[in-house]
Amino acid sequence: MTNYWLASGHSFCDRDEAGRLLPTLALWRAFLARPELVPPPEACEAERALHAAFLADPLRPGSAAEIARLADADAQENWQVFLGFRDRVAAHPTLEAAWLALYQADVRGIPPLFLQMLTHLVVYAALEGEGDAFAWRAAECLFRTQRAAIHQGALLLADEEVVDARAADGDLGALGRLLTEAGAPPPTVELDVLSEENAPGYPARSDAHDLAVDIAEGRPGQRGLARALERFIGHVLGESVSISAVPVIQDAPWILGLDTEATRIGNALWRGEMVEQAELARILWLGEMRFTEESRVLARARGKPVVLALAMDAAQRVRLKPQNLVGGLPLLTRGEGA
What we know:
Blueprint: E1 13-15, E2 21-23, H1 25-32, H2 45-56, H3 64-68, H4 73-90, H5 95-104, H6 112-127, H7 133-139, E3 146-151, E4 154-159, H8 160-169, H9 174-180, E5 192-193, H10 202-205, E6 211-214, H11 220-237, E7 241-246, E8 255-257, H12 260-270, H13 277-280, E9 283-291, E10 306-311, E11 317-318, H14 324-328
Parallel strand pairs: 5-6, 8-10
Antiparallel strand pairs: 1-2, 3-4, 3-11, 4-6, 7-9, 9-10
Helix pairs in contact: 6-11, 7-11
């Protein structure tokens, strides 16, 4: 099977019968290899000993006394945060269950980096076995910030970290001008756009995040995002859905924003407020979602599609938040009647 996103660490996970991820000691050692936890050359002996102890047994209990012995206050905080995150994740049978529980509760205090790493793994599991490179590339939006550019009929999303790094290095090109003009570094950046011709090479480049994707109407990337969301919702939330990308909002009793901007705009539309054209122009992608089991849907939203919306902010950044799906869908609680 084609191997995507090796850097996610999915090879360090086992699978249960449903294909959900089971963390292994090797995965926790990968977390321990983060520079925030690896002792620097000037680290005290207690910090070195603590790191070595957790490398030997990543699931060993951590005590406040051990952490208090560290000379560096930043190191103390890093270990406290990591162990809190580890314990919350390890309390659940799978990484998917842990991801859901974290976002159903409160993720304050958990570093965004750890949440991104966990989401990366969960999205991989959701797409495992998918053969469409456009779905895989679009799914990168679920855990990596994008920069948007609209040009000559194309609606391009490129990885923000890659754009900024290449701009800083002076790696220039025409596409980068569009991606960096909104308050970003002035140099332009050359990036390839995923196409039918270069799609077979996506797996080898998937960890570089250096391919832009076109999500304009009728393009494979537009359908790829719909497919990625279908698989994510089915795998993580256990809801079978079909999603079709659409150009405009028709009759929508339920609009769910996939990011902060789309949520704000969608709420205004739902309330019947006038939204300026410049604001509406920030919406980059719309999808109509239908549930296979209509009996699972709240009565007021039943029989009509849920509209999913993705937008860019004033700086042309796209920050898709898959956690918006956790409590934002019009679903009955399991076991609840209509």
